[in-house]
Structure formats: C-alpha cells, structure tokens
C-alpha cells in the first residue's frame, strides 16, 4: 500500500450507521435537515464564530462569498494557493490581480498590496496557506484605507486561532473546505463564515435558490445546500478533530527533528500568536532539481508527496500574463510530505531516510 500525501480520516463505521438509522427513520435527506442544523451549531461552537453556513463544497463557498459581497472588478489575490482561489474570482466575472507572496510565510505580501490597487479594485482575496495565518492586521489596514472588501480563503485553516480568537473572525467573510482531503471533512463540503448580520442574511438566501418560503424568492440564488449524509460524516469527525490535530502535531515534530540541518526549509509560523492545526507538512526544497530527485526517490519507495502548490496561479492561461517571481520560485520548490492521523512513526522515519539519502 502506498503512502499518500494524505488519507481521509474515517470514523468507526458503527458511528456513521447510527446516523444513517436516523436518516432512514425520518426519510428527510436534504434541505436544512436536522443533522445539517446540528452540524452548523456544533461548528459555530467549536470554531467560535457568529454565523456559519454549511455548503456543498469550498469552491461554492468562495463563489457565494463574492456574490454576497457584490464585488465585481479587480480582486487582489495570492498566486500561491489551490486553483479554486483564482478560478472562483474568474467564474464570478472578476479579474484576479496577483500580488506576490512573502517568501517566509508564503502568504500574500501585504507590503505589495497598495501598488496593485487601481480605481477598479474592489476586494482582496487572500489564502491562509497551509493554515498559516496571513498578516491580517496589515491586510485589513490597507482594505480600510481604500474601502476594499476582504475575503479569506481559509480552506486550510480549520481550528486555527490567531491572538486567541478564531482566524475565521477576520475579514468580511472567510470560507472553509470540508473536502475529504482536508483536516476536518464531510466527504465534500465547505462553509461560509461572517460576523456581519446583514451579509449573513443575504448568504442564507443565496445558498438556497433565494427561497423565501415555498412560493416566494428574495433575490437570485444558487444551490449551495448540503445533505444529511454529509452532515452525518461531519458530526462523526468533529469530536475527533482535537485528537487528529494532536497526532498530526506529533508527526510534524518528528519530521522537523529528522530534517533539521538538511537544507529543507519550512514556512515561518507566527508561533507566539498562532495555534496551528498541522493541516499540511509543507517543505521548500533548495531547488526544483532537488525537489524532483526527492519526489522520484519517494515514489520509488511507494511514497507519494504532492507539489502543493504548483503551478503558480499567475501562470494559468486564463489569467493573462502577470508576474509574481517569489511565488513562481517557491511553487517550483514546494513539496508537501505525507501527513495524516494513521501515519506511523516508522513510516515517517522511512520517508525522512529516503529524503536524506538524496540531499
Ligand atoms: C480545497 C481548497 C479549495 C476548494 O475546496 P473544495 O471543497 O474542494 O471545493 C479552495 N481553496 C483552497 C486553498 C483549497 O485548498
């Protein structure tokens, strides 16, 4: 069996079947059913956020966030993220304007934001990449000065706190992904989070076709709803999240100890202000040639790391030619090593031994 970059956590089957039994009894499968309502309540409590809308994936979460904020124009964004950060901007009819990343944190570099602002700029969409918080204070200061909206793609940042509060409380809106590969998952799923009551009101209609009762509509909407089956998975996984994070931390520290002095770099974490979630184990290799040699050696040992995030999003053919030299460089050297609950210490030792044999 190969060791992949991640492996979805699955709860004991009986726990899931327990929820299925209830679903069968009620024969109520979707449309804000009792399990969806319960999951939303539990997530709000666990994350410490005011409004949270469970939706069917993290990409529709970004799209609804953009629609609800009614932003259209140029959106300053990071080139170092998953493609959905950029594609959702384009899909919603706006233009992504790439602002390069800080080579230490790999998040958007706030000192470069102002130079990218034009009269068409309407918003900033930044990613807490690998769960590492952006410089939210600097971003929000720029946004305030120029009257821009702020959306955080927090797909990696489940459970992350910054200065003792959920990182999700920053910006006008934050979004999460609950895809099967994420730390907390509902197989497919995501969420939209905001503190703003009026915005929350709009989002609640938008994710359900704009329905205002069975026969009336309040504005245009889309189908962003999720089902009882997905909520049931979330309700099984949520009580385990702290234990998942605890084990991922142990594994990350084991990697750190083994890779010290090898030339493998790690993104800088603001450790004194951040409670991290260990959602990924990103490394930055000394060069692309080394990265490819490490990857090939790991593949030969049946280990499959992933080039998160490659290519740099400013090089996509539909975004026009834009430059972001730091992101382009980092994306050729970034490699995420396997990190998941069931990964054993012996497997970690095997992986680090293979890496050291190449370096
Ligand atoms: C996973 C991910 C998404 C998309 O989430 P889905 O639930 O797969 O639609 C968006 N942004 C980032 C940064 C992601 O990693």
UniProtKB/TrEMBL annotation:
Pfam family, one: DegT_DnrJ_EryC1
Gene Ontology molecular-function annotations: pyridoxal phosphate binding; transaminase activity
Coiled coil segments of this chain: none
Keyword Disulfide bond listed: no
Protein origin, superkingdom: Bacteria
Record's keyword terms, sorted: Aminotransferase, Pyridoxal phosphate, Transferase
GO BP term, pick one: polysaccharide biosynthetic process
Residues bearing PTM N6-(pyridoxal phosphate)lysine: 182
Gene3D superfamilies tied to this protein: Type I PLP-dependent aspartate aminotransferase-like (Major domain)
List of catalytic residues: 182
InterPro entries recorded: DegT/StrS_aminotransferase, PyrdxlP-dep_Trfase, PyrdxlP-dep_Trfase_major
Annotated family: Belongs to the DegT/DnrJ/EryC1 family.
PANTHER family per record: PROTEIN RV3402C, TRANSAMINASE
Protein name per Swiss-Prot or TrEMBL: DegT/DnrJ/EryC1/StrS family aminotransferase
Organism: Hymenobacter elongatus
């Amino acid at each position: 069996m190969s060791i992949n970059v991640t492996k979805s956590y699955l709860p004991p089957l009986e726990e899931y079947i327990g929820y299925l039994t209830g679903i069968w009894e009620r024969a109520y499968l979707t449309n804000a059913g009792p399990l969806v309502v319960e999951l939303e309540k539990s997530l709000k409590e666990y994350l410490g956020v005011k409004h949270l809308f469970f939706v069917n994936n993290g990409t529709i979460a970004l799209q609804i966030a953009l629609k609800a904020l009614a932003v259209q124009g140029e959106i300053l964004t990071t080139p170092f993220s998953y493609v959905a950060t950029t594609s959702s901007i384009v899909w919603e009819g706006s233009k992504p304007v790439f602002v390069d990343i800080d080579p230490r944190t790999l998040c958007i570099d706030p000192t470069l934001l102002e130079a990218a602002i034009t009269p068409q700029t309407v918003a900033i969409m930044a990613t807490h990449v690998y769960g590492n918080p952006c410089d939210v204070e600097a971003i929000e200061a720029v946004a305030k000065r120029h009257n821009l909206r702020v959306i955080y793609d927090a797909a990696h940042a489940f459970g992350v706190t910054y200065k003792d509060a959920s990182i999700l409380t920053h910006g006008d809106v934050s979004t999460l992904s609950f895809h099967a590969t994420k730390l907390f998952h509902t197989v497919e799923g995501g969420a939209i989070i905001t503190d703003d009551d009026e915005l929350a009101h709009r989002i609640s209609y938008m994710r359900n076709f704009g329905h205002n009762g069975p026969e009336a509509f309040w504005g245009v909407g889309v189908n962003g709803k999720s089902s009882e089956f997905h909520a049931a998975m979330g309700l099984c996984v949520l009580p385990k999240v702290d234990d998942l994070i605890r084990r991922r931390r142990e594994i990350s520290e084991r990697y750190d100890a083994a890779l010290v002095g090898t030339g493998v770099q790690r993104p800088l974490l603001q450790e004194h202000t951040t409670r991290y979630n260990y959602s990924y184990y990103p490394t930055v290799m000394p060069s692309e040639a080394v990265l490819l040699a490490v990857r090939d050696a790991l593949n030969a040992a049946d280990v499959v790391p992933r080039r998160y995030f490659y290519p740099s999003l400013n090089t996509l053919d539909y975004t026009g030619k834009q430059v972001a030299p730091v992101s382009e460089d980092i994306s050729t050297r970034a490699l995420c090593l396997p990190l998941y609950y069931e990964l054993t210490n012996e497997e970690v030792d095997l992986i680090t031994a293979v890496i050291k044999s190449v370096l």
